[in-house]
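Q: What does the assembly look like in three dimensions?
Context provided by user:
Components: two
Sequences:
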Amino acid sequence: MRAVGIILAGGNSSRMKELTTKRAIAAEPIAGSYRSIDFALSNMSNSKVQRVAVLTQYNSRSLNEHMSSSKWWDFGRKQGGLFVFPPVLTQDNSWWYRGTADSIYQNIGWLKESHEPYVVIASGDGVYKLDYNKVLEYHIAKRADITIVCTKCREEDASRFGVIQLGEDGRITDFAEKPMISKADLISAGVYVVRRRLLIELIEKCAEENRWDFVNDILVRYKDLKKLYGYVMDSYWSNISTIESYYKTNMDFLDPDIRDFFFRQEPFIHTKVDDNPPSKYNPGSRVKNSLIAAGCIINGEVENSVLFRKVFVGTNCHIRNSIILNDVYIGDNTTIENCIVESRDTIRAGSYFRGEDGIRVVVEKNERYPI
Amino acid sequence: MRKEMIAMLLAGGQGSRLGVLTSNVAKPAVSFGGKYRIIDFPLSNCINSGVDTVGVLTQYRPLRLNTHIGIGIPWDLDRNFGGVTILPPYESTTDTDWYTGTANAIFQNIEYMEQYDPEYVLILSGDHIYKMDYEVMLDYHKANRADLTIAVMPVPRSEASRFGIVVTDDSRRVTFFQEKPKEPAGNLASMGIYIFSWKVLKNALITLKNQSNCDFGMHVLPYLLNAGKRLFAYEFNGYWKDVGTLGSYWEANMELIDLVPEFNLYEEYWKIFTQADVLPPCYLAESSTEERCIIGEGAEIYGTVRHSVIGPGVRIERGAVVDGSIVMRGSCIGENAYVEHSILAENVVVGKDTKIGVGEEAENSFNPKVYAFGLATIGENSVIPAGVTIGKNTAVIGKTVADDYPNGALASGGVIFRENADAAEEVDA
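A: Here is the predicted structure of the complete assembly.
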C-alpha cells in the first residue's frame, strides 16, 4: 500500500474506571482472545501497510508486552515493520505527548524519512474491520485533503464522538467534536487518510501555534479551509472508551453474525498467540451462550458470558452476563452476575458479586491458593 | 561455534497402523488433544530441555509437517545458529537413496550434524506422547561415561514383544538387547530415545553404511554391544504413550479428559507448544450441552458433546450428539447426527441425521489388524452424506455419496475408499 500507518495508542479514559489502572485502552482485552489494538494492527497488516508506528504513552507496559514481537501481525520485517514510539527525553524536548497532534509532531522525523505518499492514521481503541486501500482509493478519487472514515451511530452516543455532516458528494459540511446535542447520525471512526507532506505541514504549523490536538486543532479548525471528505463505513464498528461500551462490545461477539464477520470471513484478525491447551469441561459444567477461550477449566455454570484465557471456574459456580478477563481463578460456590472481573484476580470460594444497576467492575487481589 | 547436544527427530514414517488417518499425512503430523500434532511433544521437550538445534528427518507425505514446523517460531526454534531444519532425502552425484532405515536416515545427514561439531546427538522419534527432560538424561549419560544411553521403561511382559527389550546388570549397563523378541528376556522396553556420543555414533554409521535398511534397533545397537561399547539404560517412569494404533491413539486422547489427567496439559511447567492459527474462543450455544470434554478454539457447539476431544474450528450443529469420539480441526457435524466411539480426521463433513459408530461389532473385512477396537475411522476431507448409518470397525475416506451406502448403511467391518482410494490402499498394503 502506498501509505504508512500511525496508530494512536497513548490514550486513557477515566470512564473505563478500574480497567485502566493496569493497561492502556489499546490493550483492553476483547472477545476472549484479542486486545483492542489487534483490530487496528490487523487492518494495517491486511491492507498491506508496510511501515506502522504505534504511539504509546499512558500505562503502556501491558501494551508493550503484547507487542513484544511484531511477527504476530506479520510485521517482523527487515524493511519497514512495526515501530513503537513512547515519548522520549531529548536535548530539545522534555514533554510527554501533550495531545494526539503532538505525539505525531514528536515523531515527525519518522514521518519525514518515510517515502510513501500517504498516511493512514487510526486509533487503537476501535473494534472494526476495514480495508484501508478502499479509503485511500476514495481519497484519491475525491482529490481530498483529508478523508475521515465515518460510521453511523445511535443518537445518544453522539456526544462521545466527533459528529459529521456530509454534503451530497461526500464532502464534510460540518464537524463538531463531542457536541452536547446533535441531530446528525454520522460520527468519525477515528481513522484518517491524508497526504504525508500535507500532514507534516499541518502538524508543524500546529506545533508552532502551541496546539496539540489532531481533532480540534486540525480537523475542526481546517474543516472549511481544506477539502475534508467522509468515507462511510457500513460494517461493524465499536469504540471502547467507557465501561458500558466495553461491556457491550464484548457481548456483541455472542452474536453469530458478528463472529462470522470477524472470525470466519477473510481477512482475519491477528493477535499474539499463546500456548494454552484447549478449554476443558469437567462434570458439573453447564455452559450456555458463552465464549470460552483456550486454557479455561469449567466446573460450574456459565451463561451469556465471555471468558478470556485461562479462567478457572470452580464447582457450583454461577456466572451470568459477565466478562471474566484472563487468568482469573473463581473458587467454588461463587455467583457473579453483571460484572467485569479484572484479570489475574482470585475470587474466594463462596463469594457473591452482582452489578445492581449497571456493570460492576470486580478487582479482587486475594492470594491464590494452588490449583 | 559448536553445540553440546543436537537432536535428530525421525519423522519420515508413515504410521500405517493408523489407517486412513495417515493416508495424506505422516504420523507425526496427525492431530492430537484438540490442538496439537504428535510432533509437538518431542519438539517441545527439546526446547524445554535446552536443546535448540533439531534436525527433522522427513520422507513420507511431508507437506503438512513442513507447513506445521515452518521456521520453528512456535517452539522458539527460529535461531540464527541452529534452530530447526527440515532434512528430506536428497539426490547426490554418485548415488541417490531414500531413507531406507532409521540409522540410514541419520547416516545420510552426517554433514548436517558435523556443522555443529556436537559432543552428543539425541535421536528421537515423532510418534510418542510424553514430557521428558533430555538434559537429565544427558547428565546420566555423562555420569556413566556412556557411549550410548537408551531411555527405557518397564512394560508388561505380555506387551514386551512389541518393543526392543533391554537387559542390564546392576549398574544399569546394558548386557543384552533384543529387537521385538518372540520370547522377551526382560521387561525394560526401549522408548526409541537415544543419546549417543557423537564420535561413537559417527563411527558406527560409517562402519555400517553398506548395511541395507540400517536400523538402530536391528543393527546399530547390536553392533555397539558386540564392540564392547558402554551402553546404559536410563529408566523413565513418567507418562509415555505410544500412539501407533488407532486404539492407543483414541485412548491417549480420552485420557486427557479425566478430571486430573495423568498427562496434564494445563500445568505451567513444561508447556507444550504448537503452531496454532489465531482463532477466537469457542462458542457454546444455548442449545449445547457438554460433559467431560475438551473443546478447541474457534469451535461452535450447538449440539451435545460427551466424553470427547473436539479440535479447533469444529462445528457441531443443533441436535447432534458426539460421544466418546475424537473430532479433529475444521470438521462439521450436521444437525441431529450421532457420532459414537469414532475418530473423525480433519475437515470431515458429516451430513444431518447420519449415525456413525453404531450397531454390533464385526471384524473389519479389509484390514482387521488396523481397523479394530470397535472404532469407526473417517479420513480427512471426507464427506459423509445425510441420513446414512456407519457401523463399528469401519473406515471411510473420500467424498462419499448416498449411492456408496447400500440400503443407506455401511455395515460394521466395512470400508469405503473414494477418490483418495489409491493412497488409502497403499497405507494398508
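Follow-up: The two ends of chain B are 46 Å apart (CA to CA).
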